[in-house]
TrEMBL record:
Protein name, UniProt field: YacP-like NYN domain protein
Pfam families: NYN_YacP
Record organism: marine sediment metagenome
Length: 166
């Protein structure tokens, strides 16, 4: 599953701050980078590049996170819908946005959708499951008194056998 995330939609929905937009973007990127690595999920975080002079999208890969700034004249919504349209398997894409129009159009092209709030809940739940699985897989081995005595006997027998050959 690939998650196409409406970048500014996520940023403005949950990260209200006095910090400048670049700082907020960096915080969102860092958060998603950590979540993607921890949960082994693939994210494309798409931002509008209103003042972008480049004709093609600008991309940077950070492990399981790809940050994409759309080219000049293309909105993040248009970029996302283009990706869904060009996909051979749109059902394997999840569009993360609280923009009802974008979600409706993506669903009509057979993509899955999650609101920003549902996506954050989904990440938190996956993190809880991951933590539980790690704890479950950590088996603590505690020797019983009987087992210690059995191992001690084996060790002593081996030691005696070695002494016989000296």
């Amino acid at each position: 599953m690939l998650y196409l995330i409406d970048g500014y939609n996520l940023l403005f929905k949950f990260f209200h701050s006095e910090k400048n937009i670049q700082t907020q973007r960096n915080l969102v990127i860092q958060l998603l980078q950590e979540k993607a690595s921890l949960l082994k999920l693939n994210f494309h975080l798409i931002f509008d590049a209103h003042h972008q002079e480049e004709i093609v999208a600008h991309k940077s890969d950070i492990n399981r996170l790809k940050v994409i700034y759309t080219p000049k004249g293309q909105t993040a919504d248009d970029y996302i819908l283009e990706r869904v349209f060009l996909s051979k398997t749109p059902s394997q894409l999840t569009i993360v946005t609280s923009d009802n129009s974008l979600a409706f159009q993506a669903k009509n092209m057979l993509a899955q959708t999650k609101s920003i709030a549902d996506f954050i809940d989904f990440l938190n739940e996956k993190e809880i499951q991951s933590t539980r699985e790690k704890e479950k897989n950590k088996e603590e081995f505690i020797d019983t008194k009987h087992n210690i005595q059995r191992l001690l006997k084996i060790f002593e027998d081996k030691l005696e056998d070695n002494d016989d050959f000296d």
